[in-house]
Amino acid sequence: MIRLTTKLALAAAITALPVGVAAHAIATQAKLGQWVQVAPGVSVETLRVLEDSRCPVDVSCVAAGRLVLSARVRDHGRSQTVQLTLGMPYVIGRGRLTLDQATPRKWAKPINPRNYRFGISYFPGAIRRGDLQPLLEPQKQ
Q1: Which residues pair with residue 83 across a beta bridge?
Q2: Hey, how many other C-beta atoms are within 10 angstroms of the C-beta on 1?
Q3: Residue 89 near residue 16, CB atoms below 8 Å
């Protein structure tokens, strides 16, 4: 139980890294349809919002909901389409890619896709088999 708690705390710390705290973390802002470089040799194109079930600002919700973004990732010449869920790290190559934030905040009325902006960060580093693997496995397509 303590080991799982430690892994969960470490995963939360990784996803909550503010810009500039870790010397190797790279964060960027992107709009839909835009390519952004998140590390040397690693770039992301935000394709479309697959789900935005976040709780609207002006409504009381029982569950927080989630935001899922379809993105194309190029990692040193290899390209794949992935689903990034807000706040959930995604193992890519030898690092972790995270959709850290999404604006605008959700309201009761639909958001125009052109108005979305996404905070994406990449934290490079070797990932061993036992390190947070259940939390960081790529999502199935």
Answers
A1: 70
A2: 5
A3: no
CA distance 6 to 134: 13
Closest to 120 measured CA to CA, from 52, 55, 57, 31:
31
What six digits make up the tokens of 100? 């850290």
The band of 141, judged by pLDDT with boundaries at 50, 70 and 90, is very low
For the chain, list the strands marked E by DSSP.
Answer: 26-31, 35-39, 42-52, 67-75, 78-85, 90-92, 95-103, 117-124
8 A C-beta contact, residue 119 and residue 97: no
Tokens describing residue 67: 């935001």
Q: Are 99 and 120 in contact (CB under 8 A)?
A: yes
* pTM metric for this prediction: 0.69
The reply to whether omega before 56 is within 30° of 0 (cis) is no
In angstroms, the CA 131 to CA 11 distance is: 10
**Sign of the C-alpha dihedral, residues 21, 41, 140, 56?**
positive
